[in-house]
Write a structure and sequence with these properties.
Distance between the termini: 22 Å
CATH architecture: Alpha-Beta Barrel
Bound molecules: S-adenosylmethionine, iron/sulfur cluster
Strand content: 15-25%
Number of helices: 11
Shape: globular
Length: 330
């Protein structure tokens, strides 16, 4: 499956809910987003049908996300159904980690082996502040649990926020010395509520890398300069158990290598994270469309995939994508 710019599309991120048990200040308003009703979100059977069609078209990698995916009932059975689909090579999940301790063994048994946990501060007070009430110890217990259970790789996603966690960059980097985790610094994207709450808190990964390199030598993994793991540039501190990744959607746009589609909980398919163009799959699905119709709709979304997104790190010239990340799934 190739788009209009000859990019191979083989990765689908699936948001199974727009609900979340946290309210990260850069992702959601305090009162939460306008929540979709039970009937407005795709049922698991509907998601599975779309995924089956997408796999026939060449999708081989799925990431489950949200909102917080672990708050939706039935997620473990859903993972098990995905794991039994022929043609899928890779199933993973992005979570805030707060419920992970009790889910780790069940998810592993259902067939999930890789996981990304979002964590923006290692200080309880700061963590509670950025998540508006989250409990850091629950997340740390969740990360320990996936480690003990045997998940690999375990990736920790840290959104870099000026004036909030720029003083913790080395603390996060040092985690990769002792633990076999990949610590990934992600640039803050100005979209949805971030645009309002955090407009001037963007921190470039170039600066973050420089800060780490003042203390440690970073060696590109696999001997390449920033070997690619999707859009991440991956490095290692000599002797470190884990790795350090940089995901830089603004300072180093990686659109030319983008292989993704995103299915939102409300059934809209989005070809670009940062462009508000979507194709509705739910309505045709519920009107009884055929698999061939679904294939056509998915193709229509792929055709709309832009060459590159419009968001820039140049504060004065930001165009905004007004959809919150919690609705798209990251
Ligand atoms: N609730 C889960 C979590 O937090 O991992 C999954 C959904 S969340 C929307 C997925 C990822 O998007 C998280 O790592 C979060 O930090 C990131 N994210 C949300 N808003 C963002 C923004 N404006 N810029 C960069 N990353 C953002
Ligand atoms: Fe929830 Fe994840 Fe958004 Fe935080 S980043 S509010 S945990 S969806």
């Amino acid at each position: 499956m190739r788009d209009s710019y000859n990019r191979k599309i083989n990765y689908l991120r699936v948001s199974i809910t727009d609900r979340c048990n946290l309210r990260c200040t850069y992702c959601m308003p305090k009162e939460g987003v306008s929540l979709l009703g039970h009937n407005d979100i795709l049922k698991y059977e509907e998601i599975l049908r779309i995924i089956r069609v997408a796999v026939n078209m060449g999708i081989c990698k799925i990431r489950i996300t949200g909102g917080e995916p672990l708050v939706r009932r039935g997620v473990v059975d859903f993972v098990a159904s995905l794991a039994s689909l022929a043609g899928l090579r890779d199933i993973s999940l992005t979570t805030n980690g707060t419920l992970l301790e009790s889910f780790a063994a069940k998810l592993f048994a259902a067939g999930m082996k890789r996981i990304n946990v979002s964590l923006d501060s290692l200080d309880q007070e700061k963590y509670a502040h950025i998540t508006r009430g989250g409990d850091l110890s629950a997340v740390l217990a969740g990360i320990d649990a996936v480690h003990r259970t045997g998940f690999a790789p375990i990736k920790i996603n840290t959104v870099a926020i000026k004036g909030f966690n720029d003083d913790e960059i080395l603390t996060f980097a040092k985690l990769s010395l002792h633990k076999p985790y990949q610590i990934r610094f992600i640039e803050l994207m100005t979209m949805g509520h971030t645009a309002v709450n955090h407009n001037d808190q963007y921190l470039s990964n170039t600066l973050i890398k420089e800060i780490i390199e003042r203390h440690y030598r970073l060696t590109p993994v696999n001997g390449k300069r920033g070997s690619t793991d999707g859009p991440a540039e991956i490095y290692r501190i000599a002797g470190g158990a884990g790795e350090i990744g940089f995901i830089s959607p603004l300072s180093h746009k990686f659109c030319q290598a983008c292989n993704r589609l995103r299915l939102m909980a409300d059934g809209h398919l989005r070809a670009c994270l940062l462009t508000d163009e979507e194709v509705d799959l739910k309505k045709p699905l519920r009107a009884g469309c055929s698999d061939a119709d679904l294939t056509e709709l998915i193709t229509a979304a792929i055709v709309k995939k832009p060459l590159r997104h419009d968001i820039s790190c140049d504060v004065g010239h930001r165009k905004k994508c007004m959809t919150d990340m919690s609705s798209i799934g990251g």
